[in-house]
Amino acid sequence: MIRLSVFACYLIASWMLASARLADADAHGPLRPALPALLIGGFGLILHLFLLTHLIFADEGLRLSIANVISLTGWQVAAIALVAAFWPRLRGLSAVLFPVAALGALGSGLGPVADALEGLGWEMRAHILISVAAYTLLTVGAAIAILIAIQDRALRRHRAGAWTRMLPPLETMEQVLFGTIHAGVILLTLSVFSGLIFVDNVLAQHLAHKTILTVAALVVFALLLLGRWRFGWRGRRAIYWTLAGYAVLVLGYFGSRVILEVLLERQWG
Questions:
Q1: In whole angstroms, what is the distance from residue 157 CA to residue 51 CA?
Q2: Rounded to whole angstroms, how far apart are CA atoms 70 and 88?
Q3: To 10 degrees, the CA torsion angle through 260, 261, 264, 268?
Q4: Residue 61 β-bridge partners
Q5: Please, which residues have CB within 8 angstroms of residue 170's CB and are 6 or more apart in sequence?
Q6: 162 CB contacts (<8 Å, ≥6 apart)?
Q7: Where are the alpha helices (DSSP H) in 107-169?
Q8: Does some domain include residue 146?
Q9: For residue 14, is pLDDT > 90?
Q10: What CA–CA distance (Å, rounded) separates 253 from 135?
């Protein structure tokens, strides 16, 4: 019931933000048009956090099943969407991010229940939280890259409809994209180094493939940022590099977990 309530709150907030953006309601004030959506989205965020607390935190440790991690990622996407909605030009982007968060919330608690990871110190808990935050930011970056591709294609074909008008201008979208990737790369770097320091035996914990692919994704994103700084990469080249890096990251994290938990019936740790 809570899962469906969160799903509904996020979708309603998305619809209200999109409607306000298309109606140019932002001209009547910086905050008032989005206030109902912010309240509903914020309420959904609180419900979602309550749900995650009961799903993930157990007396014996953390339950980090694939579904729970996806739901946690969705919660962070919703938090980013809620913060972005305070800026009128970014409300169209928030209207797109909220449904992404809704899909994550809908999967809360589904699938096999993971065994709790016991005996985790604050170091490993911090490593896990940093990792999920990095994945979330780069997920948002990948979503923005896809939106830029759709927006660019519509403008090239002179088919700028309601969808394109709702989103921020391309220049703003690219600025948000690279800002998000910068933050994601910083957190991903911290995640890699904290994992190398605090994980006792990477091979024994079935983390070798995940670590290698995560480092590979980090290299791809770092090259993208270098190309942006040195050669001014933008447009389609930036989109391709972003999606390539994200594909490697997803393969390293969720691909490894699917093979380990579903096919081999084992768990990290």
A1: 44
A2: 28
A3: 50
A4: 58
A5: 148, 151, 152, 155
A6: 22
A7: 122-156, 162-166
A8: yes
A9: yes
A10: 9
Which residue carries 């290299």 as its tokens? 219
Cα separation, 166 vs 150, in Å, equals 13
Instruction: Express each pLDDT in 230-252 by its tens digit.
Output: 888 888 899 999 999 999 998 87
> Distance between CA atoms of 7 and 98, rounded to whole angstroms?
9
Q: Is residue 268 part of a domain?
A: no
Q: What distance separates the 2 farthest-apart alpha carbons in the chain?
A: 59
Q: Residue 195's domain spans which residues?
A: 2-110+120-263
The string of pLDDT tens digits covering residues 62-104 is 677 778 888 989 999 999 999 999 988 899 999 999 999 999 9
Q: How many residues does the chain have?
A: 269
| Burial label, 98 (beta-carbon count in 10 A; 0-12, 13-18, 19+) | buried
Distance, first Cα to last Cα, the chain: 32
Q: Which conformational region is residue 29 in: left (phi greater than 0), alpha (psi within -120 to 50 degrees), or beta?
A: left
Name the residue among 10, 34, 185 with its Cα closest to residue 97.
10
φ/ψ of 195, rounded to 5, equals -65, -40
Question: What's the mean pLDDT in 34-41?
Answer: 92
Asked whether residue 12 is assigned to any structural domain, the reply reads yes
Q: How many distinct structural domains can be found in the chain? A: 1
pTM: 0.85
Count of CB atoms situated within 10 Å of the CB of 62:
17
Give me the DSSP letters along 22-82: HTTGGGG-SSGGGHHHHHHHHHHHHHHHHHHHHHHEETTEE---HHHHHHHHHHHHHHHHH
Q: What SS3 state is found at 117?
A: strand
Q: In whole angstroms, what is the distance from residue 214 CA to residue 264 CA?
A: 21
Is 269 among the domain residues? no
